[in-house]
Amino acid sequence: MIFDEDDVIDVIMQGRDIASIQGMIVNQSVDLSKFPDHLDTVPDLQSQRFHACSVPEFHHMRQQQWFMPQEYQDIDIAEHILSLCQSPEQLQRVGQELLLFQEHDLFDLLRYLRYLVTVMRDNNIIWGVGRGSSVASYVLYLLGVHRIDSLYYDLDPREFLR
């Protein structure tokens, strides 16, 4: 089997030992140097190492690879989201959620979602109304990621960021 980067990431996230997969061949275009250090060397690539990492480290590492124009990277996302609020109740909810997003180091994700929604709107791309626990986030509602007003339905934001 020939593994690409996504296949390798799946194996790592499943907690499997890369070296134990018999006959594994990794596509040479995969940049193995971006994975942190703990897994055994892949037999086919003796000079390069795969490494295990925690889920937060993995997410942070992948977020650094997203294409996002500099103007979105530089935006004060908290200030932008707060500026979308129109009532004290909205400000309170957004403040509470922003603290949770900050706690989970997800401001880059919010910046990217703002960029993604803008691109989809500009190109008339249709996306869903919302599903799963993401609809519990009023911040995501304000960004246009989904169309469920979690404040109106009194949804607990911790359902999204647990």
Task: Reconstruct the topology from this structure.
Blueprint: E1 2-3, H1 5-13, E2 25-26, H2 55-63, H3 70-73, H4 77-83, H5 88-103, H6 107-122, H7 138-143
Parallel strand pairs: 1-2
Give keywords.
2 strands; single chain; two-stranded parallel sheet; 162 residues
Q: Characterize the overall form.
A: elongated
The main β sheet shows up as: 2 strands, parallel
* Structural class by sheet pairing and helices: mainly alpha
Radius of gyration: 20 Å
For the largest beta sheet, what order do the strands appear in spatially?
1-2
Count the beta strands: 2
Taken together, the total number of domains comes to 2
Low-confidence stretches: 36-50
Arithmetic mean of pLDDT: 80
What level of helicity do the residues show? 40-55%
Strand content: under 5%
Number of H/I helices: 7
Please provide the ordered H/E string of secondary-structure elements. Answer: EHEHHHHHH
End-to-end C-alpha gap: 36 Å
How does this structure look, described?
With 162 residues, this protein is mostly helical. It has two domains: 2-63, no CATH class; 70-159, no CATH class. The protein is 41% helix and 2% strand. The protein has seven helices and two strands. It has helices at 5-13, 55-63, 70-73, 77-83, 88-103, 107-122, 138-143; strands at 2-3, 25-26. A two-stranded parallel ribbon has the order 1-2. Helix 1 (5-13) links the parallel strand 1 (2-3) and strand 2. The longest helix is centred in the middle third of the chain and has 16 residues, at 88-103. The protein is elongated and about 60 Å long.
Short overview:
The protein is mainly α and 162 residues long. It has helices at residues 5-13, 55-63, 70-73, 77-83, 88-103, 107-122, 138-143; strands at residues 2-3, 25-26.
